[in-house]
Each structure stands twice: as C-alpha cells, then as structure tokens.
Amino acid sequence: MITHSLSTKALLDQQHQDALALFVTKDNLATDELKRVEQDFFPGLQEFMRKQKFTGAAGSSISVQIHKDGQPVQLFILGLGARPATVEQYRRACGQLIRVAERVQCTKVAVLLPQVTDVNADVQTIAKETSLITRMAAYYFDYYIAEKKQLDFDLTYVLPAADEKEFEIGFAEGAIIGDSVNEARFWVDAPAEFLNPLELASYAHKIAKKYNLAITEFKEADIVRMGMGGLAAVSKGSDRDCHLVILEYRAPVKDAPTVAFVGKGITFDSGGLSIKPAQHMETMKEDMSGAAAVLAAIDALAQLKPNVNVLAVMPLSENLPSGKATKPGDIIRFYNGVTAEVRNTDAEGRLILADALAYTVKHYKPDAIIDVATLTGACSYALGPFFTGMMSQHKELSDRVQKSADRTGDRVWPLPFDDDYKVAVKSKVADICNIGSSKYRAGAITAGFFLQHFVNDTPWVHLDIAGTAYDVPDISYYRDGATGTAIRLLIDVARSW
C-alpha cells in the first residue's frame, strides 16, 4: 500500500520522516538543497559523493545517513542523467526511489520533486508520472504469503505552492492509471486455479456495475450456437466454460468515434494436445495479459471520461489437453464463416481472437481496433523484453499508437507487415492455417496476417506483448512477474483521440 500527501515546506524542514529524497542531473550535483545538507548535516558530502563515484547518471542512486534534529535520517540522491532528463529516465528514477527505500526499510519519505528544467515535461506530467510510477514500483504480489513483504509507504511530495493545483490534477490522473495497472498485474500474477475464465468475467461485471458500463457476456452454449468455432475449439479440452465478455464505455459527447480494444484471455495455456515443454508452461497463467490490459484500461477510462467510445472485448478460455480437446488436423469455422486448419493447438490465441474480432466488426462497426495479445514466442525472440511488436497496414492508426507508446513508456516497435507474408497462412484444406509455413519464418508477422482475415477494412493495429507482459528485467518500476504492459498506451490512445 502507498499513501501520498503534498507539502510546500522546504525538503529539510519536513518533520517525522525516515528519509529525504531528491533528484539531481549530471550537470548539477550541487543543488541548493545538497549545499544546505552539506552545511548543516553532513560536512564533506560532495567529497563523499565523489568517492562513491556518484555522477548523477540516469538510473544511479546513493543513500547516506544524516542526523537531523538528533534523529538518524536517510538521504536518497537519485540520478536523472543529462539535463533535461527524458520522462522515461524520470520514471526509472521514481522506481529507483522505491527500490532504495525498500532496501533500507524506510517507509516515510519526503520527496523533493525535480524542476521542469531538469525533466523534459510540464508540472502536470511530472505529477502524473510520479503518482503512477511509485504505485507501480511499490506493487508486490504477496497474496499467498503469510508474512507480507510489501511495505506500506507514506510519501510526502515537496513542491512550490504555485504548482500545487496543476500537480493535484496530474497526480489524480496518475493514481487512477497506476491503480488500474496494478489491478491487471494482480490478475496476471494470480494462479490459474484462482483466475479462471469465470473469475475474470466476474471482475468485468464488478467494473461494469461500479461505473455503470454496458456489459454483454456470452457463455459457452451461446458461443457454440453463434458459430464461434475458434473460441469453442480452444475450450473443448477444459472442464471450464469459455466466455466472451464485452464492456462499453460511452463518451459524454454525441457522435463520438468508437475504438475497440480486444484482448487475448487464455487464463492458462498448456498448449493443448500440442503440449508445451514443462519449463515453457510454468508461467502460462500470464497468457491472459491482453484481456487484463483491455479490462484495466476501460476501468481507468470510465473514471477519466475521454471523448471517445471504448469497447473492451475479451475472449476467455483455458487451453488444456483431454479426450475432448481439439486435435491437430481439425478444421474449424469462425463467426465470419472463414475456416482454418488447426495444425498446432498451441497456436490458440489467434483462434479465440479471430471470433472476438469478427463479432466486434460485425456488431459494433468501430472506427478502429487495437488487439493486445501474448501471441507468439517469435515476437519475444525478435524484440526481447523491452518492446512490444506492432503490426498494421493502417498508418494513421499505427502512428497514433506509436505516439502513445512514446508518451507513456509502453514502448512498441513496428514489424514489417507486408503482403508478401500473407501467403504463409494459406491452407490446402481450409481457407487459412493457424501456423505459418516454415518457408516464411517470421512467426509473429504471419500470426498477424492470420488475424487480418477477421477485421475486414476496419483500421486495425495488432500488438504482440509476448515479450513485454511478464518478467521484464532491469526496469526499476517492474518486478519479476506481470508488468501491466499496454495499459498506459491504450488509455493514452483513447484520451488523445
């Protein structure tokens, strides 16, 4: 848990704190506050920093104990890099603040926020990112641990009185977004026995009720009756029913455009009869990260109220082997009538997304679709853990997504999405095949072309988050486990439409 308050008193005038924290750039290691610390509390501070080889580089930090009013207090100095720092450098410094505080077990921290001249952002953006990122950095999945590891932080932010109103606006926005990201991280981190299709659907109902959102839910009997052969086929091996859940946020203005967010929701993926090796199955509770992302995004947007209608569409299923499971070689028919040969039951995400996309296009006719899915190991190998793969043939929409990615830190990288790859998913016995021909390799791209058969002419971007959804290293505001990737991006796309 983390609580926040604001103060216009000077940093060194804060009372009853375990620690004081401030940010410095490489260009200015002798700020007025550090000069006062050196003069009143720690003679030789600058020399100490030199001996510790602290340069203010991005991602660096130093912690030292001083005595203030007769009490020991930790001083955290956090490096931003060259001035002005990027917003992402500031995000990582905020994450580092929480990490340093955890390391020395300080929970009450006064934080002097950087000037706008130190970070390439306005006051409202600094406030939003501070609120959002400290929440993300403090998240810890300890639901099943008797002795809780997560600390309860009490952070006091020190800022000029003139900035207080702008800060409060940005801070409130960051709190909404940060809490939504962490909500999704909890769903992803939760074991599959706890977070199954029915349970995730129930979370959707709670959010719909809380914010008066329209919700539509189809259960397995409905899905079979409607001819959603992909979602039904993936679910055949599980004793749990599949679901298709759609939430609708309606903008407060008339004739607003509609953007649909479609998220893959495989709450556990064993690979089906094309079963995965054990070591590749251990974390497959995270295969519903796309559904978690779109659900968390609409949760936040219902509070932030953008002037665009938003759909959150979630096909939910488990992919398990059994005597009833879909077999390699089976042919299935999707909601829009397209047929597919299933050569590998571990390429199941595209099967459930296909029906969700086809239904969304037919019944809602959105102005744009963005799907989010932990779809291919190929994308993870191509881009590693730091960039989501983006595929699209609609430049205006992909440019929007790219700008939102650049603003929010949910980074994307465009993969070539040229028609030369389209032939890879042709089948000799059906319209398409769920595995691309090995001649064309590029598994992430060919999976995208499989999905293209279900969006018609609707502007569409496909985001493959297989590498970015879970266990991303070396970023201070993440931990091992779920990252909540794409949520900040989706929220920004809607708000900036």
Secondary-structure map:
Elements: E1 2-7, E2 19-24, H1 32-40, H2 45-51, E3 61-68, E4 71-79, H3 87-103, E5 108-112, H4 123-138, E6 153-158, H5 164-189, H6 197-211, E7 214-219, H7 220-225, H8 229-235, E8 243-249, E9 258-263, E10 265-269, H9 278-281, H10 289-304, E11 309-319, E12 331-333, E13 339-341, H11 349-364, E14 368-373, H12 377-383, E15 388-391, H13 395-408, E16 412-414, E17 432-433, H14 443-452, E18 460-464, H15 487-495
Parallel strand pairs: 1-6, 2-4, 2-5, 5-6, 9-11, 9-14, 10-11, 13-17, 14-18, 15-16
Antiparallel strand pairs: 3-4, 7-8, 8-11, 12-13, 15-18
Helix pairs in contact: 3-4, 4-5, 5-10, 6-10, 8-11, 10-15, 11-14, 13-15
Task: Tell me what you see in this structure.
By secondary structure, the protein is an alpha/beta fold. It folds into two domains: 2-162, Leucine Aminopeptidase, subunit E, domain 1, CATH 3.40.220; 183-495, 3-Layer(aba) Sandwich (Aminopeptidase), CATH 3.40.630. 36% of the residues lie in helices and 20% in strands. It contains 15 helices and 18 strands. It has helices at residues 32-40, 45-51, 87-103, 123-138, 164-189, 197-211, 220-225, 229-235, 278-281, 289-304, 349-364, 377-383, 395-408, 443-452, 487-495; strands at residues 2-7, 19-24, 61-68, 71-79, 108-112, 153-158, 214-219, 243-249, 258-263, 265-269, 309-319, 331-333, 339-341, 368-373, 388-391, 412-414, 432-433, 460-464. The strands form three sheets. Strands 7, 8, 9, 10, 11, 14, 15, 16 and 18 form a nine-stranded mixed β-sheet that branches. A six-stranded mixed β-sheet has the order 1-6-5-2-4-3, covered by helices on one side. It is elongated and about 80 Å long. The mean pLDDT is 95.
